[in-house]
Design goal:
Blueprint: H1 2-17, E1 19-22, E2 25-28, H2 38-44, H3 56-61, E3 62-63, E4 75-76, H4 106-125
Antiparallel strand pairs: 1-2, 3-4
Length: 129
């Protein structure tokens, strides 16, 4: 039994080094997560060009960065009347508190459910919340 445990510990010692010895022939073990080198990675991936619009007229006329094609003009903005009405009613600020929300809405109940799930998960882990 002691010899078996000793063989196991030697096996794991060689495994930590990255080489497993079997019949005195070293076999390399795959080194996952290691990078080839900085020079090889820089040469393989050129940096993408970033277009910066500095002209205020371009920022008002076009939606800079929305065109995902490699070539072609930027997408021109339409007048406000051509966009749907719900677009102007979206909440874009910080998330609303539960006290500020109307209990008759679906968003209220979703937020309440999410808060309870978060609390129950924290309680099940034994962490303070």
């Amino acid at each position: 039994m002691a010899a078996y445990i000793m063989k196991q510990s030697m096996f794991f010692r060689f495994l930590k080094r990255g080489v497993i010895q079997q019949n005195m022939i070293p076999i390399p073990v795959a080194q996952y997560g290691k990078k080839a080198g900085k020079a090889a990675s820089k040469a393989a991936e050129p940096e993408p060009e970033i277009f910066e619009a500095k002209d205020p007229e371009d920022l008002v006329k076009y939606c800079i960065g929305l065109n995902y094609f490699k070539e072609g003009p930027e997408i021109e903005l339409k007048p406000d009347s051509e966009y749907p009405d719900w677009l102007w009613n979206l909440h874009i600020g910080p998330p609303q508190k539960l006290d500020d929300m109307d209990p008759n809405t679906r968003q209220y109940w979703r937020k309440l459910r999410k808060m309870h799930m978060k609390r129950n998960n924290a309680l099940s882990k034994g962490k303070k919340f």
